[in-house]
Design brief:
Blueprint (H helix, E strand, L loop, with lengths): L1 H4 L3 H14 L2 H11 L4 H29 L1 H18 L6 H29 L5 H20 L11 H12 L1 H5 L16 H7 L1 H27 L4 H28 L2 H21 L5 H14 L2 H10 L7 H30 L3 H23 L9
Length: 385
């Protein structure tokens, strides 16, 4: 297992540091806006702007990589993310924060396309599920640790943004000093969604629905926790429990997907996520069950994106990796841009439980699509996954 991951440790360390610095920003902004009595629909709009930037970035990141290479492109995206993160400290204003979250999204999309295409190029077919699982473990471990930087919000208003920017900026170091060979530069055509769907319908639709689910959670998970009566520490604990749960199941689900029909693992994870989200929609108060259900929800739902990426890459030729990665980030981001607004409307109409009710419906729809795909297309043989 470790032999598959060792060649890409510098990439994993980079995403760990970057997400520790940027992964809690959505929670921090949501908490501050909730405390300022900003309507849930406007909080959802701020989150939608982030994923809108992620969508646009997914369309153009490949061109930047094509022009200057993976390492220089990564450095440029990190510099943009650092500057926009520091700019939140200038003034608390919904319009300004919406614009800055859009820029955040542009930069993070570039980081994702750089690292995920690099990882897919370096991974062997038989180890791709484990490599992507390790990537998501590093990503979510950084996010989980970063949630506790919310405690800095008890100090000077600009302190959380400064701390986040420091962590983001030093994520350049592992990439700048890496001995890993970056992918050979070539022509990277823009993502073709029609072609991507023809190659892997479940991979593409699954990634879009995961975007809906995680966009809704990241945008309004903190608001859900606050409205259940959790304070700042409790909100950080709930968000971390969900993300730590996501870390816990990355590796076992990745291993299962490398040894069995990957589509069945995806369908099972969507079924579990729908059931747990429905249970969270019915939880009426904070308590140990909230943390346990949150961790299980994270374990099932956060593993779905790398599973969908691995499934899509089972059908992609090596020269199409960057384009396919950009397409998957694009559909994920488009889903994530819609998710917060749909969830905000559900939360506005039905209270705190509306968030996870919306998520349960999204997961159930993906489950139905996955079951249909199982019946109309034979699986990729295990040795070819």
């Amino acid at each position: 297992m470790l032999s598959a991951v060792r060649p890409v440790t510098s990439l994993l360390l980079a995403i760990l540091l970057l997400m520790a610095g940027s992964g809690f920003m959505g929670t921090l902004l949501s908490v501050r806006l909730e405390h300022a009595a900003v309507d849930a629909l406007l909080i959802g709009l701020v989150t939608t702007a982030y994923f809108g930037g992620l969508t646009l970035g997914a369309l153009y990141a490949g061109r930047v990589i094509e022009r200057v290479g993976h390492i220089r492109a990564f450095a440029a995206f990190v510099a943009l993310l650092t500057a926009s993160t520091l700019s939140f400290a200038l003034r608390q204003d919904v319009a300004l924060w919406t614009a800055l979250r859009f820029v955040n999204g542009l930069a993070v999309a570039g980081v994702y396309v750089c690292l995920e295409s690099w990882l897919n190029e370096r991974a062997s077919r038989e180890g791709r599920g484990l490599v992507l699982a390790a990537y998501m473990i590093a990503l979510y471990a950084g996010q989980a640790a970063g949630q506790f930087l919310l405690e800095l919000d008890r100090g000077p208003p600009g302190l959380p943004f400064i701390a986040g920017a420091i962590l983001i900026s030093i994520s350049i170091i592992p990439i700048a000093l890496t001995r890993a060979i970056s992918p050979t530069l070539g022509r990277f055509p823009p993502p073709s969604l029609g072609r991507l769907y023809a190659i892997s319908p479940l991979g593409m639709v699954g990634a879009a629905v995961v975007g809906l689910i995680l966009g809704a959670f990241y945008g309004l998970g903190a608001v859900y926790a606050q409205r259940l009566g959790l304070g700042l520490s409790g909100t950080a604990g709930f968000m971390s429990a969900v993300i730590v749960g996501g870390v816990a199941l990355q590796w076992p689900l990745g291993w299962l997907s490398d040894h069995f029909d990957r589509r069945r693992v995806i369908v099972g994870a969507f079924a579990g996520a729908a059931a747990v989200a429905a249970a969270l929609a019915l939880v009426g108060a904070a308590g140990v069950w909230l943390l346990l259900l949150g961790g299980l929800f994270g374990g099932l739902s956060f593993a779905l994106y790398p599973l969908c990426v691995a499934h899509a890459n089972d059908h992609v030729e090596p020269e199409d990796r960057v384009s396919a990665t950009g397409g998957l980030v694009l559909v994920y981001s488009a889903g994530a841009a819609v998710g917060p607004m749909g969830a905000a409307l559900a939360l506005h109409l039905f209270g705190a439980g509306g968030l996870f009710g919306f998520i349960a419906l999204c997961a159930a729809a993906a489950l139905a699509f996955g079951l249909w795909r199982l019946g109309v297309r034979p699986p990729v043989p295990n040795e070819q996954q």
